[in-house]
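INFO  loader      accepted 1 record
INFO  loader      residues=191
INFO  predictor   begin
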Amino acid sequence: MERPLFIPVILGTARQGRQSEHVARFVFEQTKKRADVQTELIDVRELPMRLDDAGEQMKDPAFSATIERCGGIVLVVPEYNHGYPGLLKHALDMNLKEYIHKAVGICGVSAGPFGGARAIENLLPVMRELGLVAIFEDVNFGGVGTLFDERGNLLDDKFVGRVNKFLDELIWMTRALRYGREKIPSRYHED
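INFO  predictor   done
INFO  writer      dumping C-alpha coordinates
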Protein backbone atom coordinates (compact mmCIF):
# COMPACT_ATOMS: atom_id res chain seq x y z
CA MET A 1 0.00 0.00 0.00
CA GLU A 2 1.31 3.41 -0.97
CA ARG A 3 2.13 5.76 1.90
CA PRO A 4 -0.07 8.86 2.16
CA LEU A 5 0.90 12.11 0.53
CA PHE A 6 1.38 15.17 2.71
CA ILE A 7 -0.09 18.30 1.11
CA PRO A 8 -0.46 21.32 3.42
CA VAL A 9 -2.76 24.24 2.61
CA ILE A 10 -1.12 27.65 3.09
CA LEU A 11 -3.29 30.72 3.68
CA GLY A 12 -1.22 33.50 2.15
CA THR A 13 -2.42 36.66 3.86
CA ALA A 14 -2.34 38.13 7.35
CA ARG A 15 -4.82 40.97 6.76
CA GLN A 16 -7.56 41.59 9.27
CA GLY A 17 -11.03 40.68 7.97
CA ARG A 18 -9.55 38.45 5.26
CA GLN A 19 -12.27 36.64 3.34
CA SER A 20 -9.75 34.22 1.91
CA GLU A 21 -9.74 32.48 5.30
CA HIS A 22 -13.13 30.95 4.42
CA VAL A 23 -11.65 29.69 1.16
CA ALA A 24 -8.60 28.22 2.91
CA ARG A 25 -10.75 26.40 5.46
CA PHE A 26 -13.02 25.05 2.71
CA VAL A 27 -10.09 23.81 0.60
CA PHE A 28 -8.46 22.35 3.73
CA GLU A 29 -11.66 20.44 4.61
CA GLN A 30 -11.93 19.10 1.04
CA THR A 31 -8.27 18.01 1.17
CA LYS A 32 -8.82 16.26 4.51
CA LYS A 33 -11.53 14.12 2.88
CA ARG A 34 -8.98 12.45 0.62
CA ALA A 35 -8.11 9.04 2.06
CA ASP A 36 -4.62 9.08 0.54
CA VAL A 37 -3.67 12.57 1.73
CA GLN A 38 -2.55 14.07 5.02
CA THR A 39 -2.78 17.82 5.37
CA GLU A 40 -2.59 20.75 7.73
CA LEU A 41 -3.62 24.38 7.46
CA ILE A 42 -0.73 26.83 7.67
CA ASP A 43 -1.58 30.47 8.25
CA VAL A 44 1.18 32.95 7.32
CA ARG A 45 -0.13 35.09 10.16
CA GLU A 46 1.12 32.45 12.60
CA LEU A 47 4.56 31.83 11.10
CA PRO A 48 7.40 33.33 13.11
CA MET A 49 9.00 35.57 10.52
CA ARG A 50 11.70 38.09 11.12
CA LEU A 51 11.32 41.22 9.10
CA ASP A 52 14.90 42.42 9.61
CA ASP A 53 16.53 39.62 7.63
CA ALA A 54 16.05 37.93 4.30
CA GLY A 55 15.65 34.53 2.74
CA GLU A 56 16.97 31.44 4.40
CA GLN A 57 18.65 33.45 7.17
CA MET A 58 15.18 33.88 8.67
CA LYS A 59 14.26 30.21 8.22
CA ASP A 60 11.81 28.86 10.78
CA PRO A 61 12.82 25.25 11.60
CA ALA A 62 9.24 24.01 12.07
CA PHE A 63 7.97 25.54 8.81
CA SER A 64 11.03 24.25 6.95
CA ALA A 65 10.47 20.74 8.32
CA THR A 66 6.85 20.88 7.15
CA ILE A 67 7.89 21.94 3.65
CA GLU A 68 10.65 19.31 3.58
CA ARG A 69 8.09 16.63 4.50
CA CYS A 70 5.42 17.67 2.00
CA GLY A 71 5.08 16.37 -1.52
CA GLY A 72 2.82 19.15 -2.69
CA ILE A 73 1.40 22.46 -1.51
CA VAL A 74 -1.89 24.29 -1.91
CA LEU A 75 -1.59 28.07 -1.82
CA VAL A 76 -4.71 30.12 -1.11
CA VAL A 77 -3.80 33.57 -2.38
CA PRO A 78 -5.90 36.72 -2.33
CA GLU A 79 -5.35 39.29 -5.03
CA TYR A 80 -4.53 42.73 -3.68
CA ASN A 81 -4.14 45.49 -6.27
CA HIS A 82 -3.42 42.97 -9.06
CA GLY A 83 -0.75 41.17 -7.04
CA TYR A 84 -0.18 38.65 -4.28
CA PRO A 85 0.54 39.52 -0.63
CA GLY A 86 4.12 40.46 0.17
CA LEU A 87 4.01 38.50 3.40
CA LEU A 88 3.32 35.31 1.42
CA LYS A 89 6.44 35.96 -0.67
CA HIS A 90 8.40 36.64 2.50
CA ALA A 91 7.19 33.32 3.97
CA LEU A 92 7.94 31.37 0.78
CA ASP A 93 11.46 32.81 0.65
CA MET A 94 12.29 31.18 3.99
CA ASN A 95 12.93 27.92 2.13
CA LEU A 96 14.68 26.97 -1.08
CA LYS A 97 15.90 23.39 -1.49
CA GLU A 98 12.83 22.11 0.40
CA TYR A 99 10.59 23.03 -2.58
CA ILE A 100 12.53 21.48 -5.44
CA HIS A 101 10.51 19.08 -7.60
CA LYS A 102 7.34 19.36 -5.53
CA ALA A 103 3.86 20.15 -6.82
CA VAL A 104 1.96 23.34 -6.12
CA GLY A 105 -1.64 24.24 -6.82
CA ILE A 106 -2.94 27.78 -6.41
CA CYS A 107 -6.41 28.94 -5.40
CA GLY A 108 -6.93 32.61 -6.21
CA VAL A 109 -9.32 34.78 -4.24
CA SER A 110 -10.73 38.20 -5.03
CA ALA A 111 -13.71 40.43 -4.38
CA GLY A 112 -13.99 41.00 -8.12
CA PRO A 113 -14.97 38.59 -10.89
CA PHE A 114 -11.52 37.23 -11.82
CA GLY A 115 -10.93 35.21 -8.66
CA GLY A 116 -7.30 36.14 -8.15
CA ALA A 117 -6.24 35.24 -11.71
CA ARG A 118 -3.74 38.11 -11.85
CA ALA A 119 -2.20 37.11 -8.52
CA ILE A 120 -1.82 33.55 -9.79
CA GLU A 121 -0.17 34.77 -12.99
CA ASN A 122 2.23 36.89 -10.96
CA LEU A 123 3.10 33.97 -8.68
CA LEU A 124 3.95 31.47 -11.43
CA PRO A 125 7.49 32.81 -12.09
CA VAL A 126 8.13 32.72 -8.33
CA MET A 127 6.99 29.07 -8.18
CA ARG A 128 9.37 28.20 -11.00
CA GLU A 129 12.30 29.97 -9.34
CA LEU A 130 11.64 28.09 -6.09
CA GLY A 131 11.70 24.76 -7.95
CA LEU A 132 8.00 24.06 -7.48
CA VAL A 133 5.98 22.53 -10.32
CA ALA A 134 2.68 24.34 -10.80
CA ILE A 135 -0.29 22.27 -11.91
CA PHE A 136 -2.48 23.60 -14.73
CA GLU A 137 -5.70 23.48 -12.68
CA ASP A 138 -6.40 26.59 -10.61
CA VAL A 139 -9.50 27.44 -8.62
CA ASN A 140 -10.63 31.04 -8.89
CA PHE A 141 -12.87 32.24 -6.07
CA GLY A 142 -14.26 35.47 -7.58
CA GLY A 143 -16.82 37.55 -5.73
CA VAL A 144 -15.66 35.89 -2.53
CA GLY A 145 -17.92 38.07 -0.38
CA THR A 146 -20.96 36.26 -1.79
CA LEU A 147 -19.60 32.70 -1.70
CA PHE A 148 -19.71 32.10 2.07
CA ASP A 149 -22.08 33.03 4.87
CA GLU A 150 -20.90 34.89 7.99
CA ARG A 151 -19.88 31.58 9.63
CA GLY A 152 -17.79 30.48 6.66
CA ASN A 153 -20.26 28.01 5.14
CA LEU A 154 -20.02 27.65 1.37
CA LEU A 155 -23.08 29.02 -0.46
CA ASP A 156 -22.16 27.88 -3.99
CA ASP A 157 -21.81 24.10 -4.36
CA LYS A 158 -20.15 24.30 -7.79
CA PHE A 159 -16.89 24.94 -5.93
CA VAL A 160 -16.97 21.42 -4.48
CA GLY A 161 -16.52 19.96 -7.96
CA ARG A 162 -13.95 22.59 -8.94
CA VAL A 163 -11.83 21.92 -5.87
CA ASN A 164 -12.11 18.15 -6.35
CA LYS A 165 -10.88 18.47 -9.96
CA PHE A 166 -8.04 20.69 -8.71
CA LEU A 167 -7.11 18.17 -5.99
CA ASP A 168 -7.22 15.26 -8.46
CA GLU A 169 -4.59 17.00 -10.60
CA LEU A 170 -2.50 18.11 -7.62
CA ILE A 171 -2.48 14.59 -6.15
CA TRP A 172 -1.50 13.08 -9.51
CA MET A 173 1.36 15.54 -9.92
CA THR A 174 2.46 15.07 -6.30
CA ARG A 175 2.64 11.29 -6.82
CA ALA A 176 4.52 11.64 -10.11
CA LEU A 177 7.06 14.03 -8.61
CA ARG A 178 7.53 11.88 -5.50
CA TYR A 179 8.29 8.94 -7.78
CA GLY A 180 10.80 11.07 -9.65
CA ARG A 181 12.48 12.37 -6.50
CA GLU A 182 12.81 8.83 -5.12
CA LYS A 183 13.66 6.85 -8.27
CA ILE A 184 15.39 9.15 -10.75
CA PRO A 185 18.85 10.49 -9.85
CA SER A 186 19.14 14.25 -9.58
CA ARG A 187 21.79 16.55 -8.17
CA TYR A 188 18.98 18.17 -6.16
CA HIS A 189 18.09 14.99 -4.28
CA GLU A 190 21.42 13.48 -3.35
CA ASP A 191 21.76 12.42 0.27
